[in-house]
Amino acid sequence: MPVVNPEKLVALQRQADDIRNICILAHVDHGKTSLTDALIATNGIISPKLAGKIRYLDSRPDEQTRGITMESSAISLYFSLLRRAAPDDAAPKQKEYLINLIDSPGHIDFSSEVSTASRLCDGAVVLVDAVEGVCSQTVTVLRQTWIERMKPILVINKMDRLITELRMSAAEANTHLSKLLEQVNAVMGSFFQGERMEEDLRWRERIDERVTATSAKTQERSAPSNGSTADVDDGIATTVSDAGYEEKDDEDIYFAPEKNNVIFSSAIDGWAFTIKQFAGLWEKKLGIKRAILEKVLWGDFYLDPKTKRVLSSKHLKGRNLKPMFVQLVLDNIWAVYEATTGGNKGKGDPTMIEKITKSLSINLPSHVLRSRDPRAILTTLFAAWLPLSTALLVSVIEHLPSPPVSQAARMSDIIASSPGATHVSPDVLNAMTKFQTKADAPMVAYVSKMVAIPQSQLPQNKRRTGGTMSAEEARELARKKRAEFAKAQAVADGDDSDMSSVADVLGGTTISDQSGVKEEAEEEQKPDPEHLIGFARLYSGTLSVGDEVYVLPPKFSPANPHAHPEPQKVTVTALYLLMGRELESLPSVPAGVVFGVAGLEGHILKSGTLCSQLEGSVNLAGVNLGSQPIVRVALEPENPSELDRMVKGLRLLEQSDPCAEYEVLESGEHVILTAGELHLERCLKDLRERFARCEIQAGEPIVPYRESIVSAAEMNPPKEKDLPRGTVVGTTTSKQVTVRIRVHPLPTPVTEFLSKNTTAIKTLYAERKAEEEGVRGTDTPLDVPQDQIAERDGLEGAGITDTGNVLSLADFKAQLKLAFLEAKQEADLWKDVVEKISAFGPRRTGPNLFIDATHQEICNKFLREENDQEVSTDGQVTHISADTVTARDFSDKISYAFQLATAQGPLCNEPMQGVAVFLEDVTVSVPSDEDSRAREKLGRLTGEVIRTARESIRQGFLDWSPRMLLAMYSCEIQASSEYIVTEVLGRVYGVITRRRGRILSEAMNEGTPFFTIVSLLPVAESFGFSDEIRKRTSGAASPQLIFQGFEMLDEDPFWVPFTEEELEDLGELADKENVAKRYMEGVRRRKGLFIAGKKLVENAEKQKTMKR
């Protein structure tokens, strides 16, 4: 294959219609990187013989060792095609294309890399294993293409496994492939159905609003004249008819081989084909037009051998004919495998090979025909007949859109969903949708992630290949070789000849050479610093080296462009063409290109938007990551003096990894948050070898928990017999303020609703804060995001993953009321409680409620429709002296105590969930002679009230039956039945049960030797799970862990046997292990909290020594 010069790729960047930006998406081990190798071989970067083996884009050593992709990598490829400008043209002309390809990981721990790569591309190549079928990550990547509005192509890969492993016939393979295609289309149909249901709901809501408005107007008009109701009905009918429901066709979203958006391939054997290719091969032989063959080569169509006519299934008349896809396509593929590898016979047939090559007009080299390796003949034959690169790249060029076409279709929806979309400048909107590339057009680029590149690999620090070395470079190379030879010789000769061999080698060199060896050794020890390069896509305008652009953070909104922190102008220091492991310098970049940009280090944390203007700019960085960091590990350097290096390395790692996060706890621990166990291993390896360059010790994984309460059948009696359960009356130490608080468990539907709508609560809180600017302290800027305010309040670790949509205030209140109505027990308690909600917690967005149940209504109502004044019982506005201390002065202090209490529960200082706190009464008893000085003493009372309210909430919490909520993984295990099925199942079940998991479902994949097991597994028990299950099943089972949420462990951590039956069965020590207590004490031990009832010495005996 000829090597393509980078200059040709740079020239093609100016032709936007000939560019295709694609990403390859699939489940882990479905063949993405092997498929990419075959495409890279077309540009002469690697040998075609090594395609599928070298895994070129897996540039990390651990990627090569594990055989999986961990980081998305980009490469630009050249592809030329002979095409006719018009059907009547006799001579086709050569057309050149630029393919910007991104290879993404398939493991669930690195799904954030998929999210960052998909925003940069216009189309996606989705791979599905022909044997394993649709897996968990397949659904995830298909959903990502749907969300990003990318046009997909389906590649059914590893077709060779149907022949070599499953030993299927061509007819059986046809049935299997039809079912596989139905599975993929069912996933796409579910996305379409869900979206249409949402649109239908919104349409019905608009109709109801119009009907209500029309009815109200008609009644107003007819009220004075006592008109009939016929006009109302006419008005309603007219309104409904004007807003008819628009149906959308879902035909274009499905995969169908006759549409040429399905490719059948085997990346390891280097072949692929589409229906269109075989239609061209059989067009002349059968005398049927290609357009007709493309429609009938897939499906229930049959070829009459006598009349050469195409028949449908209803015209078979009992004849046993093969489908055309089997007869004309699969039989030929199967014949090649049987002739070369022997198929079931185990030995190839040279005569059959010769017959096949003659019929296809293919000449195989003689040395290939003499080869004893049947795979060499197989790959050579397929490379000449059905090359993988041709089928895939032709489909990409013909089916996937170019950047101008894609942006015209996608950008409107993407911009509409961005923050502050209504304030985006029309010039920016037109430049992105209409793909303006002029120098004066607004420049908009999206940086999806930051990539760490060693300084030695930057183009300016590397010598161009193919050039001659200077004299100095030749001397440096010779010195390095002599030093390496001396070291190797010393090791080979052993201790006796060690010094002599080194002396002999160095003796033949001059003094200058010896100094050169020392300089070389010093250079080897000198660290290679890492530089951060932005992985970006330009949507409009042109970007050149030296340009100054604004860097917009992910929380930027064009509605308030100068909000703190105000975006800064940054100078672009370098631009790069991404070539996998290599980088090529670029002077400028036009729109529609995926490129690398330098100069953003320290200005972009993970992702951001580059724009040439600040007012009216657009924020494209609001991408939803596929996985949330759930595993936290505390780190410390082995040598305490290297702490600064570790912290610097952690900050560098946080910028270069889309999913990793770094934080410092109140205890001073340096904690890294990762998506899973494999992701954690990769981050630690990068820290030790690249970013920190020091030895680092990792502690035990810190797993998040939640604390809650339930009303159990067997509970201790209330601590206050005269008060309802959970009610606590707290008095400050000065006896001047008394707070009565009641704690009660929230109904389950309400807790689930609040957990799913965290974003809506954040939005409502931001709007409420904008109305109450004066309430915020002067030390906290108005523009600081709410999560940063919560961190300043000491509420770290209380974040909640949100999965819901943003609701308006009216919709939020209506749905919350419906959730309370579902709780039929204690209906009187929850009646009208929505109007009394004062705050959510923790972090003011969590699934806990602070409810103002006082008669004076001293707290502000969070869900109020408009600002209300303080009103007395007789309806008169009260006016209180400024010197008088009232209960309202402490409302914000008690609310703050609620935030603190829900952020750190009484069990093990973990966040609460599903708890309602009712503030029933606040009594202030300040002596009359101290009224004038009360305002001066308010600061001292503030601390007392916060401490008292917090302790009262914790005591009320413990008055119920407490529960621990465990973080849970959804575990999907795909196991092979090559061994005895019951044996594999028994081992899988044993591992899951031992780790306190439970099986949800098991199903045999029809037509395959695989079965799928779905289970739930606690995150705390998941470490080492993947390795153990592979060892126990001898590699027959492969798990995928996805964070599912929190699940209650129905066990009281303080339970002890106290009834006669329990004491008789379990004894006083309770032989049955209290798992909740074990989890609770483990967290308390890690945090350094007191553990009640802990025995330091179990069996005290006298120490015996050798002397006594």
Automatic annotation (TrEMBL):
Biased segments, Polar residues type: 213-229
Keyword Glycoprotein annotated: no
SUPFAM superfamilies: EF-G C-terminal domain-like (SSF54980), P-loop containing nucleoside triphosphate hydrolases (SSF52540), Ribosomal protein S5 domain 2-like (SSF54211), Translation proteins (SSF50447)
GO BP term, example: cytosolic ribosome assembly
UniProt-annotated stretches for the region Disordered: 213-235, 508-528
Keyword Hydrolase: yes
Gene Ontology molecular function: GTP binding; GTPase activity; ribosome binding
Coiled coil: none
Keywords: GTP-binding, Hydrolase, Nucleotide-binding, Ribosome biogenesis
Protein name in UniProt: Elongation factor-like 1
